[in-house]
Write a structure and sequence with these properties.
glycerate kinase, domain 1; Rossmann fold; 6-stranded parallel beta sheet; 19% strand
Length: 423
């Protein structure tokens, strides 16, 4: 791993360690059940689902099944069909593949086993509108949710009302077969009912959908709002069709943060874990992290050990402008402004799936000279933040982190490195 003389390389190595800890090839096989007496069917959806399917076939050999993943995230499988579709706004390919998946699970018997591979991104990919809603209606809904700044828990309450597959309804379609759901968590708290909107998990939460739409100013066409309020919610956990379903979270943000922390400690760095389930506006969370970093830096002496602040969770962004950005890049930009070129603080903020927002960018790095380099390029950090244009800002200063598909997804990774003063 890169040493403290190259903070950017060090922080990138910590991010790589976090991603590697959540590799489906590592985390899926220990949880796979034995082959059943009857039929084995492998299905799934999410940004990690194709890699999870690859891990399943590495364990079982060729399998019957179908998984749905984001464009560019497919993996070679011998028997399982891997279909790519759009994320975060669904498209026709996702709509058609979801229908094909539901056809695959029809007619299963009590001796059959369905291994369901679920990860973040499954909400958009599993597109089966309910209550007379169309694909176009779901696209309108997803765009409105993404622009609202609502937390993932609120989004999922609304998504479940628009879907014929979320909120345990996929598991009901598999009954009376036995279902084992293996899940990679990308949500704060790691609740299986929240990950990909819980397609195989019942949900006993009582929520006021109308109040959520109003609270987050989610404007929808009248017919979409009416359908949402009229549609049935998720299946309760007591639904008998869910009685043969078990769910295992096989990878979660905390495990990945722990892997990065262990690597940092091996380099003599003191690690403070701020939490693996932090939520809120990206710019607000950034200001808090920057304040903490400044306070630590002020108390350091030349004899102090370097300090690393680590956090995970899921930031949100309320759309205010027409720029190109994502929650991790917006966090990094807001933190850069708050730090104002602090000479001893470096940071990285990336999404572990390699996609921050809708851009093919994982996130961004910030160093002491980031704002100065931006000014020399004629780029104004404050103006970029005002228009939610963080990706454009970091592209101009060559501080984007671009990984390509990571084939997993345990959400945000944020690391701030605070160095001691020179003697």
């Amino acid at each position: 791993m890169a040493g403290l003389t190259d903070p950017r390389a060090l922080l990138t190595a910590l991010f790589d360690a976090a991603v590697a800890r959540a590799d489906p090839m590592l985390v899926v096989p220990p949880h796979l059940p034995p082959r059943p007496a009857g039929r084995l069917l492998v299905i799934g959806a999410g940004k990690a689902s194709a890699r999870m399917a690859e891990a399943a076939e590495h364990h079982y050999g060729p399998c019957d099944g179908l998984v749905l993943t984001r464009y560019g995230y497919a993996r070679p499988c011998a028997g399982i069909t891997v279909t790519e579709a759009a994320h975060p706004v669904p498209d026709q390919a996702g709509f058609d593949a979801t229908r094909a998946l539901l056809d695959r699970v029809a007619g299963l018997g009590p001796d059959d086993l369905v291994v369901t591979l679920i990860s973040g991104g499954g909400s958009a990919l599993l597109c089966a509108p309910d209550g007379g809603l169309t694909l176009a209606d779901k696209q309108i809904l997803n765009r409105a949710l993404l622009a609202s700044g609502a937390p993932i828990s609120a989004m999922n309450v609304i998504r479940k009302r628009a879907s014929a597959i979320k909120g345990g309804k996929l598991a009901a379609a598999c009954a009376p077969a036995r279902i084992v759901s293996l899940i990679i968590s990308d949500v704060p708290g790691d609740d299986p009912a929240e990950i990909a909107s819980g397609p195989t998990v019942g949900d006993d939460t009582v929520a006021d959908v109308a109040a959520l739409l109003d609270r987050y100013a989610i404007a929808l066409p009248d017919h979409v709002r009416t359908a949402l309020l009229a549609n049935p919610g998720p299946l309760p956990s007591t639904d008998p069709r869910l009685s043969r379903n078990v769910a295992h979270v096989v990878a979660a943000p905390r495990q990945s943060l722990d892997a990065a922390a262990a690597l940092a400690r091996a380099s003599g760095i003191t690690v403070h874990l701020l939490g693996d389930a932090l939520e809120g506006e990206a710019r607000t969370l950034a200001a808090d992290h920057a304040h903490r970093a400044r306070a630590i830096a002020d108390d350091m002496t030349p004899a102090s050990a370097p300090v690393l602040l680590l956090s995970g969770g899921e930031c949100t962004v309320t759309r205010r402008g027409d720029g190109v950005g994502g929650p991790n890049a917006e966090f990094a930009l807001a933190a850069a402004i708050a730090l104002n070129g602090h000479p001893r603080v470096h940071l990285i903020a990336c999404d572990t799936d390699g996609v921050d927002g809708a851009a093919e960018v994982a996130g961004a790095y910030v160093g002491p000279d980031t704002l100065d380099r931006a000014a020399s390029c004629g780029v104004d950090a404050g103006a970029a933040l005002d228009r939610n244009d963080a990706h454009t800002f970091f592209a101009a200063v060559a501080d984007q982190i671009i990984t390509g598909p990571t084939l997993t997804n345990v959400n945000d990774f944020r690391a701030l490195l605070i160095l001691p003063p020179h003697p």
